[in-house]
Design brief:
- By secondary structure, this protein is of the alpha+beta class.
- It has one domain: Double Stranded RNA Binding Domain (2-Layer Sandwich), CATH 3.30.160.20.
- The chain is 29% helix and 21% strand.
- The protein contains three helices and eight strands.
- The chain has a three-stranded antiparallel sheet with strand order 3-4-5, with no helix packed on it. The protein has a three-stranded antiparallel sheet with strand order 6-7-8, covered by helices on one side. A two-stranded antiparallel sheet has the order 1-2.
- α1 packs across α2.
- The chain is elongated and about 95 Å long.
- The termini are far apart.
């Protein structure tokens, strides 16, 4: 392999494709080009999302913005159709549906809004990193809890403590006269 094309996702060089040696590493979100010229976003070793499955919409952000607040669409809305993608298996899709919560629409479209920064490029990077983090956490299988029983010593201590509490409470009772 001659090299890998990487799309920089930093604030200054968003969308700029550069050929790199295989040994170089960049940020957590690395895009690479396939033989067909399709850019893929690497989530894990086994999961990559094609750039064509991501739909970006730029809107005006609320909050700080200075003199450009009503002129520039700096907020980003990232849409990823989880239901129709063939890149995720059904287990990852169901875990992603649970993790996404209200961010997932009824049709299975994951919507991530980013307006933390004043710059559109930084908001775009933020939205993409949040998508990658969400898919990565959904890709990890949940650990099955192994039910455990309390030990014999723990049962004994519990019963002894209950007996002590019963004695303390019985001494609080009103004193009765037996005539």
């Amino acid at each position: 392999m001659r090299g890998v094309f990487v799309v920089f996702l930093t604030k200054s060089r968003i969308g700029a494709a550069h050929k790199l040696d295989l040994g170089q590493t960049l940020c957590s979100c690395i895009c690479y080009a396939t033989q067909e010229g399709l850019f893929l976003i690497r989530v894990t070793d086994k999961i990559s999302i094609p750039e064509t499955e991501l739909h970006w919409q730029f809107i005006r952000a609320s909050g700080p913005g200075g003199q450009n607040v009503n002129k520039v669409s700096s907020a980003v809305e990232l849409r990823f159709d989880v239901a129709r993608t063939h890149r995720l298996n059904s287990e990852v899709k169901s875990r992603l549906r649970k993790l996404a919560g209200h961010r997932m629409s009824a049709d299975g479209v994951l919507v991530i809004q980013a307006q933390r920064y004043r710059s559109q490029a930084r908001n775009r990077d933020d939205a993409l990193q949040r998508l990658v983090a969400l898919v990565r956490s959904a890709a990890k299988p949940t650990k099955v809890r192994k039910p455990t029983a309390p030990s014999a010593a723990a049962k004994r201590r519990r019963v002894e403590e209950k007996k002590k509490r019963a004695i303390v409470k019985s001494r609080r009772a009103a004193v009765r006269d037996y005539e």
